[in-house]
């Protein structure tokens, strides 16, 4: 395979991972912000149970930290995708 084929594949994977990272980041960011504001977080999974901050503060804190971990992983994936796109574009245009 020629280098241009590899560059196109890395560019396409970078664009895809950028948008996937945004999706996964915002999927956890919006419930995180709602939980911080309202004091109620809804567990993910088969039985969506509401956990209130004043009733079970330890579980609430743990679920909130899981949301933060998920959104950092999502936005990290988006950053890695953006970096791949910028690197391939700079190589293609000799910037």
Q: Report the mean per-residue pLDDT as an integer.
A: 91
Overall body shape: elongated
Number of strands: 2
* Quaternary state of the chains: single chain
- Topology order in helix (H) and strand (E) letters: HEEH
Radius of gyration: 19 Å
How many domains, as an integer?
1
Structural class estimated from helices and strands:
mainly alpha
Number of DSSP helical runs: 2
Largest sheet: 2 strands, antiparallel
In percent terms, what proportion of residues is strand?
5-15%
Tell me the span between the first and last alpha carbons: 24 Å
Pick out the low-confidence regions: none
Transmembrane segments: 6-26, 71-93
Keywords: Membrane, Transmembrane, Transmembrane helix
What does the model show?
Keywords: Membrane, Transmembrane, Transmembrane helix. By secondary structure, this protein is mainly α. The chain has one domain. Helices cover 77% and strands 6% of the residues. β1 and β2 form a beta hairpin. The longest helix is centred in the C-terminal third of the chain and has 37 residues. The radius of gyration is 19 Å and the shape is elongated. The model has no long low-confidence stretch (mean pLDDT 91).
List the helices and strands and how they pair.
Blueprint (H helix, E strand, L loop, with lengths): L2 H36 L1 E3 L7 E3 L4 H37 L2
Antiparallel strand pairs: 1-2
Question: TL;DR of this structure?
Answer:
This protein has 95 residues and is mainly alpha-helical. The protein has helices spanning 3-38, 57-93; strands spanning 40-42, 50-52. Helix content is 77%, strand content 6%.
């Amino acid at each position: 395979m020629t280098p241009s084929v590899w560059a196109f594949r890395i560019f396409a994977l970078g664009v895809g991972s950028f948008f996937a990272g945004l999706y996964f980041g915002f999927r956890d960011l919006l419930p995180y912000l709602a939980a911080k504001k309202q004091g109620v977080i809804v567990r993910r999974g088969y039985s969506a149970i509401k956990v209130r901050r004043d009733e079970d503060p330890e579980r609430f804190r743990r679920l909130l930290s899981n949301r933060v971990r998920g959104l950092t992983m999502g936005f990290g994936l988006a950053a890695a995708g953006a970096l791949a796109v910028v690197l391939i574009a700079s190589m293609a245009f000799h910037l």
